[in-house]
Amino acid sequence: MPANSWPENDYYDELDPLNSLLSDLSVDEESVVETDMSLPPRFQGRRRKAALVLTIVWSGTIALHLVSWGSIFVLGLTTLLGLHALVIVFARPRHYAKEMQGDLPSVSILVAAKNEDAVIGKLVKNLCSLEYPNGQYEVWIIDDHSTDKTPQLLAELAQEYEQLKVLRRSAQATGGKSGALNQVLPLTKGEVVAVFDADAQVAPDLLLQVIPLFQHEKVGAVQVRKAIANAKENFWTKGQMAEMALDTWFQQQRTAIGGIGELRGNGQFVRRTALESCGGWNEETITDDLDMTFRLHLNNWDIECTSYPAVQEEGVTNAIALWHQRNRWAEGGYQRYLDYWHLILKNRMGTRKTWDLLMFMVTMYILPTAAIPDLLMAIARHRLPILSPVTSLSVTMSVVGMFAGLKRIRLDQKFSIFTSFLLLLQTMRGTLYMLHWLVVMSSTTARVSIRPKRLKWVKTVHSGNGE
To answer: So where does this one cross the membrane (predicted)?
Structure first.
């Protein structure tokens, strides 16, 4: 069901007073500009909302340098964030039964693919060879009007694998990946819907390990850890490997305290009833997974994250590709706060999730945005940045989380001085790599509030390399 035809529900129960200006959509490789009037009310006025947030953050940061109690406020904020960080660090991850009680539910695996002839064959062979009761899972490849050899390869593979089904979209189809997934959803039969990228590779027992997590009625989705297949290639891919370990560790610790678990696109499993309660994938966002995360939690579903099994994917191999990808992630992540802020403040998710979400927003979006005016004021007044305590806490949490995450994903559990030293080196390199997020976040929050949102992002090219 497309987002534009969502049923009437609380997402649209009150119109946002800030909805007024033009808003752009970004779908796959094309840039599409639409007016606010063409969007559902919840997604209107994003640019104006972003401008308001930017103004508040900049003026608030400048004011902290000018008032006498500015340092006290920062220390109070640091204490608040620090207490939340300590709770996260010492939380014990949840453990669920790994065996299914009763019959296994049916599973539909979906992959939206466009010009993926380099990897599509390997992907299909992998997904069609999973260990699961015969006839209980199906694989759908949505060919989003590919112009390379992808259609021919899929036609050949469909003759070889009984569970493979192919849907080819027309050139006029819209909605990007979300549109492709919405179009195929009515044709699927799985009680659990899994979504993978075209470069995904998984272990044969993936379904047998993940599906039992849905025995818990409140679990609406499960995200498996993303592992970088070509991690050894260069600095950028090694950094992404450490980043994914950090991300999974944070998600597991946050869910352990009743906070937010998040979807990451590749390797996400969603209960069909939960998906239908959200009205399908949102075609008015550039990051369908991050948007779905909020809507699932707003509908009182939980999202679990697992370190094992993992889904292998190719990491981008150069700074330009990384910049395009991370800017899209940053904008999509920020965009959902602009879309659902009213429902978040209504505490629709519950106190624990709302609090965790706000702490995460301050750390990931507000602080990087405030870093620029803070630095400018520090230079002008010949003093240290006033937000230094909060920034130091954020960096410390990143280092601790990355070390713990890298340690958690190691297959061998024997740790010596040498392995600890190796993990420390990987952590330091990963921390250096993660500094790019400071530039990405600060520039993204400024760009979407000042410039008309005409973001044209480049499709990530999959080469099929990586172990």
So the answer is: 50-67, 73-91, 357-380, 386-406, 418-439
